Write a sequence for this structure.
């Protein structure tokens, strides 16, 4: 039996519950209706030739750079944002370096940081999940080499003010600062071009959420051209597959589809937040396509998720995340999906009240 590296043996394993996801999938923050029809049309046009050749990333990177208003040298297309995080860790972290995250947050930051041999320092958000700017600031040391911040954050949906993020980047000039904008389309706030003032700043975007292409695995890492040269050295030249590259221009060309989807999701989010408020269920106002709500104890969250599942709605139990005991995360989709969600929510709340009443002495 081979012996994995020491850090690998201590890595937490992240097993997202992907099996048997039958029903309305409001558990992974995906687009609940799928990608633009133009992407499907492009897929149908692909032939054996397209799959036989190694994928060529650069022409599509030029299209994406145009779309984002930056130079091709300032971005790298990646196999989802996950790969971008991995590449940043591989590029900037030596064993024993410090890497900072805020908890709760997206699980993969910790895993890739640890895998690179870094010491991960977790800074806890306050109970209202506000961005812990001062605490983060105080934890920056000479050894800090990477700081990863999801903005809006997952699973809380909360967002940090741009000035505070820039202040962190300024106070850690020898650390790579990643602002992960996976949910950018749902809030519109971005630091995309701020790397021009702060060359240690990186921004990521994904096509897994608003664009409905999580299965194709497409992300973008944006940063200073000099830094990006270093990151590109670590990356495989074929990291993004030919099918994904062929589809990406079609996805970008259909901005009408994205804008409509975002409008629908924001309406649904307001409806859900109102329903939670009316039912007395605490939640955190969200800037993303999901809402985190506290339905009770850790056990109550598990029961809630199960009751929703029986009604055909999948939502995610986040109880094991730092500070999220008894919390569930609910992804929003357009009106008809919101109708199903809200109907199931009302019934489930009714059930759980009955169940609580029944268990009283
Ligand atoms: C904050 C954040 N970053 C990155 C990802 C992963 O994105 P991708 O599918 O592009 O790897 C997620 C997925 O949930 C996320 O919430």
């Amino acid at each position: 039996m081979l012996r994995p590296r020491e850090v690998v043996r201590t890595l937490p394993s992240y097993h997202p519950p992907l099996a048997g996801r039958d029903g309305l999938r409001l558990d992974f923050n995906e687009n609940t209706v799928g990608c633009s029809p133009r992407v499907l049309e492009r897929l149908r046009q692909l032939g054996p030739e397209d799959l036989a050749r190694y994928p060529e990333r650069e022409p599509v990177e030029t299209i994406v750079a145009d779309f984002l208003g930056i130079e091709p040298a300032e971005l790298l297309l990646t196999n989802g944002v996950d790969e971008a995080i991995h590449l940043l860790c591989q590029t900037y972290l030596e064993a024993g370096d410090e890497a900072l995250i805020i908890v709760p947050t997206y699980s993969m930051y910790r895993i890739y940081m640890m895998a690179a041999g870094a010491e991960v320092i977790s800074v806890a958000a306050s109970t209202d999940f506000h961005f812990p700017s001062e605490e983060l600031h105080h934890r920056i040391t000479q050894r800090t080499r990477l700081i990863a911040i999801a903005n809006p954050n997952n699973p809380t949906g909360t967002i940090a003010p741009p000035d505070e993020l820039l202040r962190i980047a300024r106070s850690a000039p020898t650390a790579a600062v990643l602002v992960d904008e996976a949910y950018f389309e749902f809030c519109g706030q971005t630091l995309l071009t701020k790397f021009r003032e702060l060359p240690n700043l990186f921004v990521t975007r994904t096509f897994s959420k608003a664009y409905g292409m999580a299965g194709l695995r497409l992300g973008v890492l944006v940063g200073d051209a000099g830094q990006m040269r270093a990151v590109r050295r670590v990356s495989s030249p074929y990291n993004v597959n030919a099918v994904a590259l062929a589809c990406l221009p079609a996805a970008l060309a259909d901005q009408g589809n994205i804008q409509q989807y975002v409008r629908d999701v924001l309406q649904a989010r307001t409806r859900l937040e109102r329903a939670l408020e009316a039912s007395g269920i605490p939640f955190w106002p969200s800037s993303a396509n999901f809402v985190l709500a506290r339905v009770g104890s850790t056990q109550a969250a598990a029961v809630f998720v199960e009751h929703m599942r029986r009604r055909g709605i999948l939502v995610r139990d986040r109880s094991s995340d730092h500070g999220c005991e008894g919390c569930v995360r609910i992804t929003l989709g357009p009106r008809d999906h919101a109708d199903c969600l809200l109907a199931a929510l009302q019934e489930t709340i009714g059930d759980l009240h009955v169940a609580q009443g029944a268990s009283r002495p």
In short: The CA atoms of residues 102 and 231 lie 24 Å apart.
